[in-house]
Write a structure and sequence with these properties.
By secondary structure, the chain is an alpha/beta fold. Helices cover about 40% and strands about 15% of the residues. The structure holds zinc ion.
Length: about 400
């Protein structure tokens, strides 16, 4: 069996790992941060700029793309890579998280989820099999199983039943992949030959990650991890985090699941977090991350630096000639002052938002690159402790 994930180094003092994951559109060095391209676009940033930022992989949201522009449009353009002009790896989520958080739910049952989308209220049905079909049509390099993400707080019984359903859904996703990988061309009469060939090559090369659920309950997290690992996926995600629970619950959920997840597979902590949280998750054996904070908070003027966040709207920056962060190599910091960017944000100029977004993405991507180097050198644990100790969240209310 070919090996997609290779462990290159492990930290002696924590569970941090330095690895490399092979996908159909290139290698991903881990720990890795994945900028979020919700609607087929990382907000305000072009694929050329993403390459300049050394983004290795981006995330596409299945639910958003399914609702708008719809699969027919994306198929017409030959898949998501071609549609958005990004030739690097793409991970797509299953759509589950957005169905549960954005859409108007009609019915959740074992067969799947019936919902009305948040754009025009049209009804749709997504089952584990449909989620796999959509992700095959998008042509992502890494697909995720359909799961139910329970809210916080959540009753024990509901979290238990939900995690069991997520396991049954994961099994069906896995079966769908097996059946569609093995198939040669029996369905050719239903599709054009070209479409069948491209779909098949996508399905064959697409990695499939399972998702561990279980809410904030340690025994449920453990049981969910064991059940999902038994199904044997290409990687494992810890889902249902960063849904409003306290940070210690978030850490505990990962700590409960991690020992059951095999060391030779990539681990993805979904939807996290602040820079210190990412390093804490790396120290707990996580390899991949996605988070909307760097792009979302840029919109209200918040910049991430290695010593904490800055809100560039504050009047203290009006005459400040320094860059957002001293010694930062990003294009915003090389050319522009805090005072100028503050002016752009106050005047609601699009450039202001773009410059902070570029800096924030650089900051997250650079943090993971630094973590990789520190793990290789055997100094990750000192680095993490020093970083977390000096990091200050100045506008705590904004980091939610
Ligand atoms: Zn910068």
């Amino acid at each position: 069996m070919q090996k997609d994930f290779e462990l290159l180094a492990s930290d002696q003092y924590s569970k941090a790992r330095r690895g490399r994951l092979k996908t159909a559109h290139g290698m991903i060095d881990t720990p890795a941060f994945m900028p979020v391209g919700t609607q087929g676009s990382v907000k305000g940033v072009s694929p050329r700029e993403l390459r300049e930022l050394n983004a290795q992989i981006i995330l596409g949201n299945t639910y958003h793309l399914f609702v708008r522009p719809g699969l027919d449009v994306i198929k017409h353009f030959g898949g998501l890579h071609n549609f958005m002009s990004w030739d690097g790896p793409i991970l797509t989520d299953s759509g589950g998280f957005q169905i549960f958080s954005l859409a108007k739910l009609r019915k959740i049952a074992d067969e799947g989820v019936e919902f009305q989308n948040h754009i025009d209220g049209a009804r749709a049905f997504i089952s584990p099999e449909v989620a796999m079909e959509i992700q095959a049509a998008l042509g992502s390099d890494i697909a995720m199983v359909l799961d139910e993400c329970v809210p916080y707080p959540c009753e024990y019984d509901y979290a238990a039943r939900s995690a069991e359903m997520t396991t049954r859904w994961a099994k069906r996703c896995k079966r769908w992949k097996q059946e569609n990988t093995q198939r040669s061309t029996p369905n050719a009469q239903r599709r054009t030959e070209e479409e069948t060939v491209s779909q098949l090559s996508t399905i064959n090369s697409q990695l499939l990650f399972g998702i561990v659920q279980g809410g904030t309950f340690q025994d449920l997290r453990r049981a969910s991890a064991q059940a999902i690992v038994e199904l044997d996926f290409d990687g494992y995600a810890i889902g249902g985090e960063s849904v409003g629970e306290p940070e210690e619950e978030m850490m505990r959920a990962v700590e409960s699941a991690e020992p059951s997840v095999p060391a030779d597979k990539p681990r993805y902590a979904m939807g996290l977090g602040t820079p210190p949280q990412l390093l804490e998750m790396v120290a707990r054996g996580m390899d991949m991350f996605d988070c909307v904070l760097p792009t979302r908070l840029a919109r209200n003027g918040t910049a991430f630096t290695s010593t904490g966040t800055l809100n560039l709207k504050n009047s203290e920056f009006a005459l400040d000639k320094r860059p957002i962060e001293e010694n930062c190599a990003c294009s915003a910091c090389r050319e522009f002052t805090r005072g100028y960017i503050r002016h752009l944000i106050k005047a609601e100029e699009i450039l202001g938002l773009r410059l902070i977004t570029l800096h924030n993405l650089h900051s997250y991507l650079n943090l993971m690159s630094r973590a990789r180097t520190e793990i290789e050198r055997g100094t990750f644990d000192q680095f993490r402790k020093a970083f977390v100790a000096q990091y200050e969240t100045r506008d705590a209310a904004e980091i939610e």
